[in-house]
Amino acid sequence: MGVTGVGGIFFRADDPDALRHWYRTHLGVGGEGYMPWEQVAGPTMFLPFAANTDMWPREKPWMLNFRVDDLDALLATLRAADIAIERDPTWDTPETGSFARIHDPEGNPIELWQPPAE
């Protein structure tokens, strides 16, 4: 008995409808209205960071991390939509996979993660 997975991620937004639309359009996250997002099972990290981490802006208390299956293809789609992308080759390792960071229209940090090939 215990927790079996993440049941939801809830956060405040200045324009919830517009932000839901942005996530659905650009990342495929979320259903229409309040319908659940059906996802493929896989690893999920639950990891508090130190209060002084420089992984994301200090004024934002959290960062979303989404597992993706083709990071390069997703980044090409995001670039075509004029979404700024941050990459750093030191983030990527054969053991952990590949990473990129973006921000949603309200400035919330999002990390995109392609796990290493099995």
Automatic annotation (TrEMBL):
User: Domain VOC spans what residues?
Assistant: 5-115
Name the InterPro entries on file. Answer: Glyas_Bleomycin-R_OHBP_Dase, Glyas_Fos-R_dOase_dom, VOC_core
- Gene3D superfamilies from the xrefs? 2,3-Dihydroxybiphenyl 1,2-Dioxygenase, domain 1 (3.10.180.10)
User: Per the record, which residues fall in region Disordered?
Assistant: 89-109
Origin, by domain of life?
Answer: Bacteria
Q: What is this protein called?
A: VOC family protein
Organism in which the protein naturally occurs:
Sphingomonas populi
